[in-house]
Amino acid sequence: MKKLTIIGATGALGLPITKRLTSKGVQVKAIVRDVKKAKEQLPEAVEVAYGDVSDKESLKIALVGSETIYLNLNTTNWDERAPFQPEREGIINVIKVSKDLGVNHIMQIVGIDLSHPEFATNGMEYKTNRIRKPAIEYLKNSGINYTYFHCSVFLDSFPTFIQGEDFGIIGNHQNPVFFTNTSDFAENISNAIGNDKAYNKAFTVQGTEGISFPAAANRFVSVYNPKIQVSEYPMETIRHIGLPSEEYEDFMEHMLTYVEQLKEEQVSEYTWQILGKPQFTIEEFTKSLME
Fold first, then answer.
1. According to the model, what pLDDT value does residue 76 have?
2. φ, ψ for residue 47 (rounded to 5)?
3. CA-closest candidate to residue 32, choices 12, 66, 62
4. For each successive 10 residues of the chain (291 residues), what is the average pLDDT?
5. Residue 82 structural domain
6. pLDDT at residue number 258
7. Per-residue CA distances from 145 to 14, 35, 70, 106, 141 (Å)
């Protein structure tokens, strides 16, 4: 039986990935800060243990017995002066403890922009990579086997764009995106567990079809709810939709501006050879979200 320890199992992407892996028979251990809440969200088959990436002592207990770790953390700001960032100091803490415990393999999700900066047609830098890069270099130099997944945009995010009967797209998104999804991605993760062909490599994770954001949104809502209309709004709309903080507004504006000028090409054939080819169309994955 394949075994995997996940840090970030209850996040927006981590939760469906964990559920999918569990349904495939992977024995999952989730390291979480809120054990009670995690047990309410995660499948019963998942072992839940307390651990905090800011607390090395908790990790020394939580990670005992782990052979393969998957990191699904998220950075929403690029303050390099901050004394602690989960995707920087937090991951470095995980690596240090993992090395002491003899962990064999650490996997992490990052964006496709990190491996293919040439996709940024305006030469724009995705600023959160300033936070990620020190930990990435630390893992590569740690002696622990690593795997990086450089992912395109996830279809899983689409319901968050819906308010009432409006799917609101902010910005002018006309370039092709090879949308992926958590079901196909979970298959890649599963196939990387214990697979020495996946060690010390980076894999791009894309769908098979390049399509613009508005076109993908229309195909999504045709299945999700045909009453929903897809609307496009100028970028300045981000300042008027009631996001929780100015910092988060800055992050969303930066992220959407980056995606707006991102022009992907299909570069995932090697991933498909080693870790499996995507199986879901936009419509098929939308149906699975509704089940």
1. 85
2. -80, 130
3. 62
4. 98 97 98 98 98 98 98 90 96 98 98 95 94 97 98 97 96 97 98 98 98 98 98 95 90 93 97 98 97 88
5. 3-290
6. 93
7. 21, 29, 12, 6, 10
Provide φ and ψ at 3, rounded to 5°. Answer: -125, 140
CATH code for the domain of 81: 3.40.50.720
Domain count, the chain: 1
> What percent of the chain stands above pLDDT 90?
96
Place of tokens 């995705």: 126
Residue 86: DSSP 8-state: I
pTM of the predicted model, to two decimals? Answer: 0.97
Task: Mention every residue, 6+ apart, whose C-beta is less than 8 A from residue 37.
Answer: 10
Contact 188, 150 (CB under 8 A): no
Residue 32 has φ and ψ, to the nearest 5°, of -135, 160
Tokens of 280: 């879901």
| Planar angle of CA 120, 123, 125, nearest 5 degrees | 80
For 166, phi then psi, to 5°, come to: -130, 125
Measure the CA–CA gap between 270 and 8, rounded to whole angstroms: 27
Measure the CA–CA gap between 151 and 13, rounded to whole angstroms.
Answer: 12
Q: What is the pLDDT of residue 81?
A: 94
- Give me the residue label for tokens 């130099």: 141
List residues bridging with 69 in a β-sheet: 5, 106
**205 touches 288 (CB < 8 A):** no
Task: Tell me the β-bridge partners of 148.
Answer: 108, 202
